Amino acid sequence: MKGDEESMKIQFDLEIENLKHMLIDMATAADKMIELSNLIFLERDYMLVDEVYDIEDKVNHLEVDIEKTCVSLIARHQPTASDLRLIVAVIQMSNQLERLGDLAVNVAKRYKDIAKIPPHLFPADLRSLVTVSSQMVKDAMTAFIDRDAKMAHEICLKDDWVDMANRKIWKEFIRKIVENGIDLETGFEMLMTSKQYERIADCATNLAEEVIYYLNGENIKHRFQEETTEPS
Amino acid sequence: MTSESDNILHVKNLSAFYGENKVLKEVDMAVKKKKITAIIGPSGCGKTTLIRCFNRLFETVSNTSLKGEILYRKQSIFSYDPTLLRKEIGMVFQRPNPFPTMNIYNNVIAGYRLNGRRLRKSESDRMVEETLKKVALWDEVKGVLFRSPRELSGGQQQRLCIARTIAVSPRVILMDEPCAALDPISTAKIEELMLELKRDYTIIIVTHNMQQAARISDLTAFLMLGELVEFGETDQIFTSPKNKRTEEYITGRFG
Questions:
Q1: How far apart are CA A213 and CA A85, in angstroms?
Q2: A222 pLDDT higher than 90
Q3: What percent of chain A has pLDDT over 90?
Q4: CATH code reported for the domain at B4-250
C-alpha cells in the first residue's frame, strides 16, 4: 500500500510538471503572437499577419487541453494546498493567455487602417506603451517559472502607469486627428490599438496576481492600492 | 470574530507521558463550541492520546502522567467527577461497539441503565425514538428494537453507538476514527450525521482520512510527533497551510 501511494505521488508530480510545461508552451505562443503584432503595428511588417492567426489556433487548443488536464487532476487526486492553488492558478492563467492571443489578433488585424497614418503622427509614448505591456507579459511568466512573488508584485505596480500612458496617448492622438484631418474611422483604429496594449497590460497584471496566489496563497485581486511605479 | 466564550475546551501547554516517554509536547489549542474540529497527523503522533485526555480516559492507563491544563467550560477537567465528565464528553470509537448483551433499545438508554437511573417506560420510549431519529436510524430499526445490535450492519451499529452517546445529552462528542471500519456509503451517512449533530454538539474527530477532515470539519489541528504543528480553519489549512510540515503532510509528500 505504501509503495502504491508513493508511486501515485510520483505520478501526480509528473502530471503537475507536465501541466506547468503546457502552460509555458501556451505562454510562449501568446508571447510570440504579441511580438509579431508589435512588429506589424510599429514596423509595418505586414507579411507577419498570417503567422499571428496560425499561432492563435495553437493557443486556443492549449487552453482547452489545459482546462481538461486540470479538471482531471482535481477529480483523480483531490489536490490540496499549493498543488490545489497551482491548478486553480493555471486555469485562470490559461484564460488570460487565450485573451492575450485575442488581443494580439486585434492589433494585427488593424494593420490596413494603421498603414494610412504617417509614422510621424504616432503618439510619443506609443512605443513605450507597447514595450512595457509586452515586457509585463514576459515578466509574469518569468515570475511563474522562477517562483518569484516579488517580481510578480512589481508587475502589478506597472499597470497604473500603462493606464495613464494610454489615456495620455488618447488625448494626444485625438488632438492630432483634429489638427491633421485624419479620417475619423482610421483615427479610431489607432486609439483602439492603443487600448489593446492597455488590455495586454491588464492581462499581464492578472497573470502576476495568479502567480502570487499560487506562491503565497494571497489573493490580491481588486485591492491593489500601491503607488504607481514608472517602469524604467 | 471569536472570543473565549466560544471555546468549550481549552488545552494549555499540555504534555502527556507514558512513563518517561513524552507523547504530547506542550500542546495549546482551543476547541470551539458547536463546531467540528478534526485532528489529523501520521500514525503515532498523539491524536488519540490527546482526545483521551479530554475525557480523562488517558489516566486510566497505568504509568501515565500529564503536565499542563485542560479546561472544560472554563474549569479544570480534574475538578469534575470523571463519570460525570464522560457523560458530558462522550466518545465514539473506531470499531462500532454496541453492548452485545443488550438489545438495540437498551443500547440507546444504556447510559441511564448503567448508572442506575430508572426511566419510566414512556420516558425511555420517547428518548429512544428521539435519539434514533437524531442519528437517522429510527426508520431502519423501529421494527426490530428488541433484537440484538449484531444483526445491524457496521454503519448502523456505529450510528447506534452515536445514539447511545447522545442519549445522555453530552455537550462534546469525541470520535476516534469513527468511519475507519465502514464502507464508503456508511461513511457518507456518518459524515452527514456529524454535520447535522454539530448544530447541537461540539464534535472532535480524529481521522486518518484527510479528505474526510477537509469535507466535514470547521477547524483542523495537525499533530506530528506529539507536537501541535498547526491549528486553524480547515479551509485555510487545506488551501494555504502556514507551516511547511503541514503542507508536506496534506499534499502526501510525507507521512
A1: 7
A2: no
A3: 88
A4: 3.40.50.300
Left (φ > 0), alpha (ψ -120 to 50) or beta: where does B66 sit? beta
User: How far is Cα B163 from Cα B190, in angstroms, rounded to an integer?
Assistant: 12
Give per-residue pLDDT as tens, B122-131.
999 999 999 9
Q: Indicate yes or no: CB of B239 within 8 angstroms of CB of A84.
A: yes
- What ipTM was reported for this prediction? 0.74
CA A202, CA A221: separation in Å to the nearest integer? 12
Question: A232 lies in a domain?
Answer: no
Domain regions of chain B by residue span: 4-250
Q: What whole-number distance in Å separates Cα of residue B167 and Cα of residue B123?
A: 12
- Name chain A contacts of B214, Cβ cutoff 8 Å: 80
- Structural domain contains residue A224: no
Cα(A221)–Cα(B7) distance, integer angstroms: 34
Q: How many CB pairs under 8 A join A and B?
A: 31
Would the CA dihedral through A67, A220, A147, A141 be positive or negative? positive
Are A62 and A29 a contacting pair, CB within 8 Å? yes
Phi, psi of A231 (to 5 degrees): -65, 145
Tell me if B139 sits within 8 A of B83, measured CB to CB. no
| A192-217 mean pLDDT | 97
Residues of A in contact with B210 (CB under 8 A): 80
Bridge partners of B224, per DSSP, are B227
Chain B residues whose C-beta sits inside 8 Å of any chain A C-beta: 210-211, 214, 238-241, 246-247, 250-253
Rounded-to-integer distance, Cα B27 and Cα A131, Å: 55
